[in-house]
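Tutorial handout. Part one gives the primary structure; part two gives the three-dimensional structure as tokens.
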Amino acid sequence: MLERLKDKAILFLEDNIEFATNSIDLLHVFVQDVYHAQSISEANIILHSNLIDIIICDIKLKNENGLDFIRDFRKKNTKIPIIVISGHKDEEFLFRAIPLGLTAYLLKPIKYEMLINVLKQCLEMIEIHQMEKIELKEGWFYNIENKCLEKEGITHTLNKKEALFMELLSQNRDRLITKEMINGSVWQFDEMSNSAITNFILRIRRRFGKNFVFTIPDIGYRLKT
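Part two.
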């Protein structure tokens, strides 16, 4: 599977030169191009000039915050997989980063087996976005290009929020979808109440069936029980 990463490019935002050098050598085992940036401004220049498939970003940079970079980037692009790395576990950061659609949160030093698993997740997300349509569940397909739902030859049009929600589902078919993820993906960082999200899910169920998504009490939703 990982051989399909060979033609991909990674942006690696890390200000620790020694750690960056060792990590880049490891990443070159899996991908052809790794672009290294030591600051947010350098990262933005690389993004402007190159086609990037995956972003790996340290949380704490010299006089900068990796979370600020990710938040600004997500306003322009919600699809590219992002991996964050840190020297220690930061529970507050994890809470604030939930709506930003991170693929993984890795602790330094990066373990080889963990990196392989995370890169597989990134590849899966990339290939989903390249597909014309993807099956969500039980014959329901999300047409990525036309942003509509299809089942048994019938096309169901979607409004903007519904389409954003279906994109979120397509990226997390076998995973829990938290209310924070819905807030970030569907409302695009405009803070929404729990009741607004609940009402949105109710409308989805009225349109596509009461079992289209399942509620996990006090946490979020899943496509499958």
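Part three, for discussion. The helical segments are 17-27, 40-49, 66-74, 91-97, 112-130, 160-171, 179-186, 194-208. Residues 91 and 97 are 10 Å apart (CA to CA).
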